[in-house]
Amino acid sequence: MPIYKRGESWYVDVRIQGHRYRKRIGKSKHLAGLALNDLELKAERGQLGFLDRKEITVEVFLQEFRTYSKANHRPATVSRYKAVCDNVLQFIQKQTQVNRLSQITPDTIEKYKIHRRSAPVAGNGWDPVRVNKKSVRQGAKGYTVNFEITTLRTMFNLAIKWGYLDKNPASAVKLLKTDDSKQRRFLTEEECCALLAHSSPEDRPIFFVLLNTGMRRAEIAHLEWSDINFKNQTLKIQRKPFWLPKTGEREIPLNDQVLLVLNRLSRRGNFVFTDRKGNRMDPDILRTRLVRTAQRAGITNLTELHALRHTFASHLLMNGVDIPSVQKLMGHQSVETTMIYTHQTTDHLRSAVSKLQFQAGKLDGKVVRIGG
């Protein structure tokens, strides 16, 4: 029946050109009939948006999005979006009632959230089948699921632009409230000294420059001698024909120790840091050497080069540098990103407060006691 009653409400439920239209009208059967007539009239005139929409399967759309991403995003972003596409496709293939993109609803995405929070996932985000079973845990973390939901919003906005959807099904889906945000690892002064002391002569200058400039791994890998102004004591992160900085260009002042280290380096080509053959340094290989160095130095939980960037920002803040200056040095687009590092210095602040030693005194010859 194109109209029917459930409880006290009347509904319109009709299929037009393969599309199902179902809507609650109200308590009036007459109004439900009028709504049905209006729907059929608009269908005849071609005034129903979903009738003009280009149909596409989820799998084909995801492939189109990946092609778009490769042309418009940086490699790291392309890799992250690919992982989201793979997860979504794996989930959709198990949904018997969902094949076309237009069949995805907010409820579908809610089910996807539940799936991601319970399905096995590797700690590094890879396919659990292909990695060591010890690294596999049950369920993605909240911040990972939230990133995937925001990615879906981006994807579906493009689908609307491309004429595949009328509205974004992810816009009504709320993000998870998370208490499992990543804790950014940074080194204490003692750990920095230990790291440098146990580094090889080849790695020590690289680690030292990272600790004193806060450069990203891709930034130091693409650093060229022409980027360094020894006279002005500055280093410029700038675009190149073969590489673009993540957050645009910026300039970093260099302290005397960094200048001394850079001046002592032998020049094997255009790049400041190279392998033994003079080729551009591979950040992945450097990360492996960092982990091994940390193990020799007895430093725990140091697994990423990015920790040296975190160390740079955290120690600037602990030494009283204002947040806008740290934001500029780090190349953060928003101050909220820089504010993350203020939460890392709680122990440092606690230590500073503990140095206060106000003593009780006398007032009008009487001893003033603390607390009354």
Write out the CATH superfamily name of the largest domain.
Intergrase catalytic core
The parts where pLDDT drops under 50 for at least 5 residues are 124-135
Instruction: Report the CATH topology name of the largest domain.
Output: hpI Integrase, Chain A
Oligomer: single chain
What does the main sheet amount to?
Answer: 3 strands, antiparallel
**Total number of strands:** 10
Strand fraction: 5-15%
Q: What form results from the Cα inertia axes?
A: elongated
Q: How many domains comprise the coordinates?
A: 3
Number of helices: 15
Overall pLDDT: 83
H-E string: EEEHHHHHEEHHHHEEEHHHHHHEE
CATH class of the largest domain: Mainly Alpha
Computed CA radius of gyration, to the nearest angstrom: 29 Å
Class by alpha and beta content: mainly alpha
The end-to-end distance, rounded to whole angstroms, is 80 Å
Walk me through this protein's architecture.
The protein is mostly helical and 372 residues long. It folds into three domains: 3-52; 58-161, DNA polymerase, domain 1, CATH 1.10.150; 189-353, Orthogonal Bundle (hpI Integrase, Chain A), CATH 1.10.443.10. It is 45% helix and 11% strand. It is built from 15 helices and ten strands. The chain has helices at residues 29-45, 49-52, 58-72, 75-92, 106-118, 142-161, 189-197, 204-213, 217-221, 256-264, 283-297, 306-318, 323-330, 335-339, 346-353, and strands at 3-6, 9-16, 19-26, 120-122, 136-138, 228-229, 234-237, 250-253, 362-363, 366-367. A three-stranded antiparallel sheet has the order 1-2-3, with helices on one face. It has a three-stranded antiparallel sheet with strand order 6-7-8, with no helix packed on it. A two-stranded antiparallel ribbon has the order 4-5. A hairpin with a 2-residue loop joins strand 9 and strand 10. Helix 3 packs antiparallel against helix 4 (75-92) and helix 7 runs antiparallel to helix 8 (204-213). The longest helix has 20 residues, at 142-161. The termini are far apart. Residues 124-135 have low confidence and may be disordered.
